[in-house]
Specification:
With 129 residues, the chain is mainly β. It is 0% helix and 46% strand. The protein contains no helices and eleven strands. The strands form two sheets. Strands 2, 4, 5, 6, 9, 10 and 11 form a seven-stranded mixed sheet that branches. Strands 1-3-8-7 form a four-stranded antiparallel sheet, with no helix packed on it. The protein is globular. The N and C termini lie far apart (40 Å).
């Protein structure tokens, strides 16, 4: 069983930055190397939005238009960790952010939730002055 834990959320002023981490763990000898990782966010009353994903090697990344140019996804497979660097944050970025992992995912578009098998518990990001 793969477990994902997000961290790095918090309160930040508009224009500020945060870096979210998604750390994976599993059975002995587990490696994140084969998984595509996606980042999603959700606010109450709204549909979950897929905002970014990264291929297993890190060579392919995708972004939703809402975050393109401001957010950067990266991964360190040696640490079983994926990062989401968020810059120029806006109040509309306020949401609970989730990471998810999938084995059979084609990372050619912003992620769709149904493609992912494992989910973290989420971390709150609040952008407010």
């Amino acid at each position: 069983q793969l477990q994902l834990v997000e961290s790095g959320g918090g309160l930040v002023q508009p224009g500020g930055s945060l870096r979210l981490s998604c750390t994976a763990s599993g059975f002995s000898g587990f490696t994140l190397d084969y998984y595509v990782i996606g980042w999603f966010r959700q606010t109450p009353g709204k549909e979950r939005e897929g905002i970014s994903c990264i291929s297993s090697s890190g060579g392919i990344t995708t972004y939703a238009d809402s975050v393109k140019g401001r957010f950067t996804i990266s991964r360190d497979n040696a640490k079983n960790t994926v990062y989401l660097q968020m810059n120029s944050l806006k109040p509309e970025d306020t949401a609970v952010y989730y990471c998810a992992a999938g084995l059979v995912v084609v990372p050619t578009k912003p992620p769709a939730g149904y493609e992912y098998d494992y989910w973290g518990q989420g971390t709150q990001v609040t952008v407010s002055s």
